[in-house]
Amino acid sequence: GLFVTDYFTRTPRKLSPFRSFASIELFHFHIPEDTVIAVWNLITFKEQGGTFGDQCPDRSITVYFRSGAPSVINPLHTHFPRDTAVPGSFALTLTWTLPNRTTGVFNVTSPLPGDWFLAAHLPKDEGKISVKGLYEECQYLFQPQLIVQRLVNIAVLYPGHVTEQSMAPHNRSCLYKVFVPSYTSRVLVEVLRCRGAEGCPLWLRVRAKAPPLHNSTTLDCREHTPCQLAQDLPFWQHWYYVLVEKHPGVPGTLSFQVTVQLTDCSRPSLARPPFLPSSASMNMPHSFGSAGGLALGDSPPPTSPNDTKHPVPIPVTSHAGERCWPVRPTLRNELDTFSVHFYIFFGPNVSVPPDRPAVFVINLLPVLDSGGVLNLELRLNVSSLCGENVTVFGCLNHEVPLTSGDNTSVTCETESLAGFLLSVNATASLSRLRIPYPQTGSWYLSLRSLCATEHGFEPCTNVTAEVYLRTYLSPCINDCGIYGQCKLLRTNNYLYAACECKAGWNGWGCTDNAEAFSYGFQLLSTLLLCLSNVMFVPPVAIAVRSHYLLEAAVYIFTMFFSTFYHACDQPGIVVFCIMEYDVLQFCDFLGSLMSVWVTVIAMARLQPIVKQASVLYLLGAMLLSMALQMDRHGLWNLLGPSLFALGIMAVAWTARTIRRRHCYPPTWKRWAFYLCPGALIAAAAVLLYAFVETEENYFYIHSIWHLLIAGSVGFLLPPRAKPSRRLGPLPRRKGCGYQLCVNEQEELGLVDPAVASINSICTS
């Protein structure tokens, strides 16, 4: 046949360690119809500082594949919320083959058409809190590429017509497809008039949505006469593919006929009428392709007079389950993104008669609805049972309703279908079902009432059960509870929602408390982070005593906003916010940096040099506000103003040292008991903050940071500068000269000015 190759790629993205589904990278692809093979090329490479990260450690990368909706993954093996159905997916782990690059290949033969989703992440790390910009981090980038090969001009089988086909010796198989409309209960494929070899050395394979595989429904025509393959309860509004494959080693040309019969479940004793040439009569969505059969691996054979199509009468026998019941639609009411309610006409109370099921359809829009959670709730009205032991069973199936002909059947599965079972009775009158990331399309809910007896379940008589039915689409399960936050995420043009848990809670709905923080632990961590700011009280007292009123005001500002910021920043339920979180965070960061700025400027003692030192205070406030607005967590945006203040202090101290020809401050006591201890305490605080702090030890390491920073301020703040006494003008000598007056107390930098007399030494 004629193959067409399509190529799709996505932009590389940085992978993150897995914490929740909100930390994964999601990629969305679309596979066209009639695809025979899809090849994903998974490219991963390392980067560090804009170059290849040859020195970065090898970290395994896990990739998940799923058709129709994103994968519901659980790499941490946490518990899902109750009544939650977990759809399956395929996972692949990539290993590194080169120091900075690796490539993985994932092949899917005859993939299902439509949306495919890839999810990738790194393994969970130890949760270290790193300072942005302190060092070049290793980045792991992931880029998936998709190559598909699809067949064109696949022959279409028309129900009720015969297609004649000749298979050349060098051909192995012929592929056809037939469209199955709604209300079809049975698909019957038959091979007729097999000629050219002894018996009928053919295999007949049938599969829905995609070309058949080796494990698809198969029939050996050599062993079965007539060669008929039936599919009960087929998927509605989908293509079914028929593959006629020749046995190996069969010489010569084989000729045969293929026909398809569809059974209309609304009229179980009748087959669907022969298909008319107009394609609109069956609402087929795409081109029908070629009229004749197409042999795989060969070009279409030339049309001969024998390759004609004509109706053939096929007897139809009655089968269990061929009868279908009316499907009641639901009204879709969109409230918000992933917030959709499905209302039942003349509902929400539903009457379930004893002699037939009640069937409802829920339509989920492609792409738009697959990123949320489908919720279903059944509540039985016990008063409607009239004392009978009635159980109402609900079967939720995708793309076809399951209405078994067996009146006592309570299963929602067949050989080709798998659904979800719900049940309510007088004892358990409430049943719920949650399906995260549901596949889009039509979901059918079939409700049946059965009475429990000694011999099992039997059909009820004259009892019509009443059930309250509620169906809706929500972003997350129970809005992630009180220990989680439901986040709306986006990858290109695809939206999906996921929970981000806190306070040690895990799971898809933040309901797994295996590692959860207790209330006492949350209260202790909050009190430590808040009360550790009381350490700023001694620096405030020292500043007031030394007449540093502006510095004292800054310390009070820092203590106040740091206390209430950490009270609002807690992950658990011990939270207290007096303002918006962003305002508290900005004020906390600004107060911390302003405390450093005003302390260093005060240590510089700029009054004799710069008469208006408040200019520097105002300049620092403006620079720090600008830096925090640019990047609140950037290293150099925060470290730059601090280094600038230290530079001003260093210049002032150097100028005094050169002028006096003596080290400043001049006393060893000031260095030994104040400056050196304060500098060591501040350095220890910075090292703890930058290299030791993690998510697990944050509450006590950050509390120690508060204590050390406040303590260092108490040591580094200079003593009070007592103004020098005004002396009368001294007689000037005749001639050229100058007078230099020095305040010894200010030069010595003594803590207590009473220990030294104020002497003005004037030299000419």
TrEMBL record:
Start and end residues of each EGF-like domain: 499-510
Keywords, in A-Z order: Cell membrane, Membrane, Transmembrane, Transmembrane helix
Main location: membrane
Pfam family, one: DUF3522
GO cellular component terms given for this protein: plasma membrane
Source taxon at top rank: Eukaryota
Membrane topology note: Multi-pass membrane protein
InterPro entries, per the entry: EGF, NGX6/PGAP6/MYMK
Family (UniProt): Belongs to the TMEM8 family.
PANTHER family reported for this sequence: FIVE-SPAN TRANSMEMBRANE PROTEIN M83, TRANSMEMBRANE PROTEIN 8B
Name the UniProt record assigns to this protein: TMM8B protein
Gene behind this protein: Tmem8b
